[in-house]
């Protein structure tokens, strides 16, 4: 019998064959009959009013079906609350084509619908729109004095904890001190798949929206509230998402516009945004951070202050947790954390992979490096001397924390002990400067409520479903693993379905919580099904399990058997066939166990070691080696988890060396809104990356003991690279990305 | 305050071009399409032939997601008009293998977990086949360089390198 133990094993993706053959279906790829094409016209100005839209000129073109704008959009839901999605920040959500006001550059001002894509694109290119332009403000630098503390409007946002100790006095009195400002520009998610929605008109006001989203439930509730649809009449589907990274957490205007057109025209419509338009609906905000650290003579932190200011739109208070992590990653008695946002004439920022923490870890982890140098200490040794045994923000112990093991194992793998401390003291065989840097971070281990359903047929085939998503994270695979192992089935006998509002409710796919939340629901559902199967097995003629209790049996290798005596077994398929039932079903909904979790701080941790080589003449930086050591509880699939962390490192390198969306303040518009000028790492940028998962058992965080790995792996990467650049060159770059001009 | 028209063209918009029949040979099959001459090869594949394995990531030749093989040579199908390819043999990801019968590159991509979301993957695989056909990528550095026209935002480059290297090393031609 083949083994049916899958959890923790490096299992290949069950959706791999579909993805490598092009048969996986993404939002823009559903084939529906009599479909029209939409194309969005975007505003070239950042602020003002639309004064005239010459729609009649393009409506005269044969094949152009309609031009939607604020002039002809029907009366829809009135109150802001109808436009609020599950993760909307405080304020008034943007409503596309609502009125003549322009609030940001690239705001959608019209939607062309035509018989072909080519025609819609052409009509959009020739549509004349006139504007009354007003003065805009898009520079965060000029708004420093206008920063304010936002309310707790967004799910998951925690205002910084109250100060502790006396950080100002401790800083003044300490022997070693540093203070500096750190800056990074705006960044855009840029998933490879363009935002797209195919709306299938099912007649009588009923639609199915195949939408690019990280949450079909979120999109469904958004659309039903705005358009006054019944849930049954508005099915939302996403079986495969070509990358999300946070861009699909909120319903985007593409979904709204495609559904609007389909309902108005009573016809199927497909709308795909352009790559330029992918820079029009949210980004990691341009952030200014001020850090002020002091160390005692023994290398312990005497004081820590971390203040952040980032941009938001005029209409919503976007928030993320930038500074809170600095109060818990290192032991320090004198801490003050501050957080403000400032309004600009741009679209609302949007959670982007490790929102807040990725930004905050740049400030904190470069500052820690600077502090270590000021105190004459090795940067890793400095971190070890300030290891936090408790979460001082909430004064609770960690449910588990193997960060010290990460430090030791990661350093050993990297060869950190061969590092010489002085900047510019290491060179490679080619004579290039070599630098070694370290950074790291901490991320929430969160569990949300989730439900799942399982059904097994007499031929032993198991189908498990939940309305979660797959955007490259491996959801199909890990859920299949959990289900297969729980019921002792080969993974080939398991089908996992997701991304459909007809399935049991699941949370948004974000926050690194899918494995914990949906995984727990899948496990619980399969356990409920196991009990049903067990009851049937006991009733079989001459059942060897007749007198057994549920605790006495296990499901393995397609059998149900006594734990104590594996020869006392029944074949699962035989049980189902003997029962005479065509199929057996179970469902379950799982909530986090608050009673168990309440006394603890639940977090994952990592440390990153990076090696760079720097060409002194050209200022070019290459990241030649990275070791990322992670403590994130139980790892469900070593293969897909490793890929998530490899991808996180690539993201961190992008953040460190190339990614920045540059605003031209004269126009209030991003200049580099395309892949040619918004640089993301390519294959030639990537060299050796090692991923270490440090063993970490945790039975408090959730029943599976998983903490999630989609985000934690990115933390500290950019800082480790920037610190390595300092070590190589002696130049401290505090304004990311580290580009050539900053080193020459 | 200035008036700011987006298009300075006077009223009266030029009519779009008429459609005409275009013959394409794709994965060994002949197709006749009635399309306007400004239809890209990418849109012809995706929107008219429903061969959606070829992906649109930028429509500007900047990401490589739309890579297909034309007479064995890799091209960005978004930068080429369908009408320019009458008489050419076009191979898309659908022509390389099926879920039941994977091409060696497809199998290597699965084995090395050389993708996450899968959206850039068909382009990566077609590009890798083109690279093998070109015959001048042998070292890891060469493969990295010559696969750098295909962006993977999930950052699966380590797996992509290992998958392509494995097939290159085995000397599998196609």
UniProtKB/TrEMBL annotation, chain A:
What organism does the record attribute this protein to?
A: Hymenobacter duratus
Protein's recorded name: Xanthine dehydrogenase family protein molybdopterin-binding subunit
Q: Matching Gene3D superfamilies, A to Z?
A: Aldehyde oxidase/xanthine dehydrogenase, a/b hammerhead, Aldehyde oxidase/xanthine dehydrogenase, molybdopterin binding domain
Q: Which InterPro entries match?
A: Ald_Oxase/Xan_DH_a/b, Ald_Oxase/Xan_DH_a/b_sf, Ald_Oxase/xanthine_DH-like, AldOxase/xan_DH_MoCoBD1, AldOxase/xan_DH_MoCoBD2, AldOxase/xan_DH_Mopterin-bd_sf
Q: Which domain of life is it from?
A: Bacteria
Aldehyde oxidase/xanthine dehydrogenase a/b hammerhead domain residues are: 21-135
Compositional bias segments (type: Basic and acidic residues): 135-147
Where is the segment annotated Disordered? Answer: 135-170
UniProtKB/TrEMBL annotation, chain B:
Q: Per its UniProt record, what PANTHER family does this chain match?
A: OXIDOREDUCTASE WITH IRON-SULFUR SUBUNIT, OXIDOREDUCTASE, IRON-SULPHUR BINDING SUBUNIT-RELATED-RELATED
Q: Domain 2Fe-2S ferredoxin-type: where?
A: 20-96
Q: What is this protein called?
A: 2Fe-2S iron-sulfur cluster binding domain-containing protein
Entry keyword set: Iron, Metal-binding, Oxidoreductase
In this entry, which stretches build a coiled coil?
A: none
Pfam families for the chain: Fer2, Fer2_2
Q: Which CDD domains has this protein been placed in?
A: fer2
Q: Which domain of life is it from?
A: Bacteria
């Amino acid at each position: 019998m083949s083994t049916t133990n899958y959890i923790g094993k490096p299992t290949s993706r069950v959706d791999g064959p579909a993805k490598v053959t092009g048969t996986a279906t993404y939002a823009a790829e559903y084939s529906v009959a009599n479909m029209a094409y939409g194309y969005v016209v975007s505003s070239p100005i950042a602020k003002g009013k639309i004064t005239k839209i010459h729609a009649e000129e393009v409506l005269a073109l044969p094949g152009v079906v309609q031009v939607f704008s604020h002039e002809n959009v029907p009366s829809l839901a009135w109150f802001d609350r109808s436009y609020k999605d599950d993760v909307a920040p405080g304020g008034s959500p943007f409503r596309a084509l609502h009125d003549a006001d322009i609030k940001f550059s690239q705001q959608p001002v019209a939607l062309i619908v035509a018989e072909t894509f080519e025609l819609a694109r052409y009509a959009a290119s020739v549509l004349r729109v006139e504007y009354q332009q007003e003065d805009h403000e898009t520079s965060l630098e000029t708004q420093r004095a206008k920063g304010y503390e936002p309310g707790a409007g967004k799910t998951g946002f925690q205002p910084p904890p109250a100060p502790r100790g006396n950080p100002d006095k401790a800083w003044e009195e300490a022997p070693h001190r540093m203070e500096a400002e750190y800056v990074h520009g705006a960044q855009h998610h840029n998933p490879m798949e363009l935002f797209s929605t195919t709306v299938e008109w099912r007649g009588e006001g009923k639609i199915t929206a195949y939408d690019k989203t990280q949450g079909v439930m979120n999109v469904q509730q958004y659309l039903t509230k705005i358009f006054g649809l019944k849930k049954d009449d508005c099915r939302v589907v996403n079986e495969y998402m070509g990358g999300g990274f946070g861009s699909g957490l909120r319903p985007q205007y593409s979904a709204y516009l495609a559904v609007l057109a389909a309902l108005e025209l009573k016809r199927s419509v497909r709308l795909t945004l352009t790559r330029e338009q992918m820079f029009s609906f949210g980004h990691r905000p341009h952030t200014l951070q001020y850090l002020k650290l002091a160390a005692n003579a023994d290398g312990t932190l005497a004081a820590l202050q971390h203040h952040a200011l980032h941009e938001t739109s005029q209409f919503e208070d976007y928030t993320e947790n930038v500074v809170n992590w600095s109060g818990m990653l290192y032991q320090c008695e004198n801490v003050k954390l501050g957080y403000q946002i400032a309004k600009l004439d741009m679209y609302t920022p949007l959670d982007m992979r490790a929102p807040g923490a990725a930004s905050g870890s740049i400030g904190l982890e470069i500052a820690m490096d600077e502090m270590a140098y000021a105190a004459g200490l090795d940067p890793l040794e400095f971190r070890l001397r300030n290891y936090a045994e408790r979460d001082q923000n909430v004064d609770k112990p960690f449910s588990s924390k193997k960060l010290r093991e990460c430090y030791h194992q990661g350093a050993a793998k990297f060869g950190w002990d061969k590092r010489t401390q002085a900047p510019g003291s290491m060179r490679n065989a080619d004579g290039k400067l070599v630098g070694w840097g370290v950074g790291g971070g901490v991320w929430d281990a969160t569990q949300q409520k989730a439900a799942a359903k399982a059904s097994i047929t007499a031929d032993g085939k198991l189908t498990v479903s939940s309305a979660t998503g797959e955007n490259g994270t491996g959801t199909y695979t890990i859920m299949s693993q959990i289900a297969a192992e729980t019921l002792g089935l080969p993974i080939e006998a398991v089908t996992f379905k997701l991304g459909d509002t007809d399935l049991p409710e699941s949370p948004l796919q974000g926050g690194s919580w899918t494995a914990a939340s949906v995984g727990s629901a899948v496990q619980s559902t399969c356990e409920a099904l196991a009990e049903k199967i067990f009851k049937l097995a006991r009733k079989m003629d001459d059942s060897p399990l007749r007198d057994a209790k549920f605790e006495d049996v296990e499901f393995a290798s397609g059998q149900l058997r006594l734990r104590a005596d594996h020869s006392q077994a029944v074949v699962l398929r035989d049980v189902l066939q003997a029962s005479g039932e065509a199929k057996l079903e179970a469902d379950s909904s799982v909530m986090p166990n608050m009673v168990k979790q309440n006394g603890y701080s639940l977090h994952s941790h990592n440390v990153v070691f990076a090696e760079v080589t720097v060409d002194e003449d050209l200022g070019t930086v290459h990241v030649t080696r990275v070791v990322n050591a992670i403590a994130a509880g139980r790892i469900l699939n070593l293969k897909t988890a490793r890929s998530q962390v490899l991808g996180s490192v690539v993201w961190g390198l992008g953040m460190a060396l190339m990614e920045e969306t540059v605003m031209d303040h004269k126009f209030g518009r991003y200049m580099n809104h395309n892949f040619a000028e918004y640089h993301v790492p390519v294959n030639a940028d990537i060299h050796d990356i090692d991923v270490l998962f440090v063993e970490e058992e945790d039975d408090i965080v959730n029943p599976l003991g998983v903490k999630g790995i989609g985000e934690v792996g990115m933390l500290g990467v950019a800082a480790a690279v920037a610190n390595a650049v300092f070590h190589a060159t002696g130049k401290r770059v505090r304004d990311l990305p580290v580009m050539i001009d900053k080193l020459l | 305050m200035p008036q700011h028209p987006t298009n300075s063209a006077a009223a009266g918009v030029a009519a779009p071009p008429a459609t005409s029949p275009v013959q394409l040979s794709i994965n060994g099959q002949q197709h006749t399409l009635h399309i306007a001459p400004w239809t890209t090869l990418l849109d012809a594949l995706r929107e008219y032939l429903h061969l959606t394995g070829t992906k649109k990531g930028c429509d500007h030749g900047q990401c490589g997601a739309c890579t297909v093989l034309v007479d064995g040579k890799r091209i960005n199908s978004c930068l080429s008009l369908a009408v320019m390819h009458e008489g050419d043999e076009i191979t898309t990801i659908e022509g390389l293998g099926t879920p039941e019968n994977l091409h060696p590159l497809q199998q290597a991509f699965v084995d090395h977990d050389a993708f996450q979301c899968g959206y850039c993957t068909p382009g990566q695989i077609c590009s890798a086949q083109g690279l093998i056909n070109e015959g001048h990528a042998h070292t890891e550095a060469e493969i990295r360089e010559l696969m750098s026209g295909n962006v993977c935002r999930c950052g699966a480059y380590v797996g992509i390198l290992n998958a392509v290297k494995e097939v290159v090393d085995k000397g599998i031609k196609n």
